[in-house]
């Protein structure tokens, strides 16, 4: 599924707001339930209708693009 630039930016802004997902020093980072809940919140807030699995795949692709940029 292709996302527009606006949808990618929306995702990145939401993702940034949940450091328990991406920050290994966050106190909740190792709590799988809290991390899962954060992913669910992103899924619910995102204007693109998709599921957590697809969002996580998109995150991986975005990080690969950023690292190779």
UniProtKB/TrEMBL annotation:
Superkingdom of origin: Eukaryota
InterPro entries listed in its UniProt record: MADF-dom
PROSITE patterns: MADF (PS51029)
Annotated Pfam families: MADF_DNA_bdg (PF10545)
Domain (MADF) ranges: 10-69
Protein name, entry field: MADF domain-containing protein
Source organism of this protein record: Macrosiphum euphorbiae (potato aphid)
